[in-house]
Specification:
The protein has 12 helices and no strands. By secondary structure, it is mostly helical. The chain has a domain of about 60 residues. Keywords: Repeat.
Length: about 210
């Protein structure tokens, strides 16, 4: 670009960095990021979010450390992380069983005036459910209800599946009824979890009724 008289901008660099990141080419994206910095072109929230996403997707501990470093560097440059940036970290930490760390990220984003969205809350809920910490998962759900993020069927499915796995089908059924009361519609995942849960505890007639309702 510069050879033809055009100077690269933050947008052009970020676009290419994002493409490299999506293709898993972290080394190339990092090299381009360093070139961008050496030219005195300041990265923006999009640049950092792409690099953080790529680091998290690598599933390597060293890259997760890099993701945390990038977030810290981003804040140090007075670039406000977006809800998307924070949610990337929350989701990755939860999938790796690091729910306490994920909760810490959520607390940090709230402190910085970034409101968690439905994806953030769903990721944290799922993290607790994977650890079978259903009381904590329900607390996250209740917090979401009181926030601007309205739970969707996927939110309910996370909890229903969590309760099914610990054989608390009564709790799962309460959530099922709550879905109807909110004028939402259960999906195949909802029914599958409930039917499996009912069969697991020997409530075959109830399972059959749900099957016919589908």
């Amino acid at each position: 670009m510069s050879e033809r008289g055009f100077e690269p901008t933050a947008v052009s660099y970020s676009t290419i960095i994002d493409s490299f990141c999506k293709d898993g080419m972290i080394d190339k994206s990092t090299k381009l990021f360093n070139e961008m910095m050496s030219r005195g072109i300041p990265p923006d929230v999009v640049t950092y979010s792409s690099l953080i996403q790529a680091s998290c997707n690598s599933c390597q501990w060293i890259e997760w450390i890099e993701a945390a470093r990038l977030l810290k560097e981003m804040v140090g440059r007075n670039i406000k992380p977006s809800v998307y940036t924070f949610t990337i970290l929350v989701d990755t930490l939860c999938k790796e069983g690091m729910v306490s760390e994920a909760k810490g990220v959520v607390e940090t984003m709230i402190e910085r005036g970034v409101e968690p969205n439905i994806c953030t809350y769903n990721a944290l809920m799922d993290g607790y459910c994977l650890r079978r910490e259903m009381n904590e998962a329900k607390k996250v759900f209740d917090t979401m209800v009181l926030s601007t993020a309205v739970p969707d069927v996927y939110s309910y499915n996370i909890l229903i599946n969590g309760y099914y796995k610990i054989k608390r089908i009564d709790k799962a059924m309460n959530l099922f009824h709550d879905i109807h009361s909110k004028n939402m519609f259960p999906d195949t995942v909802t029914y599958s979890s409930l039917i499996s849960g009912l069969c697991q505890v020997g409530r075959l007639i109830d399972a059959q009724e749900l099957l016919s309702e589908m």
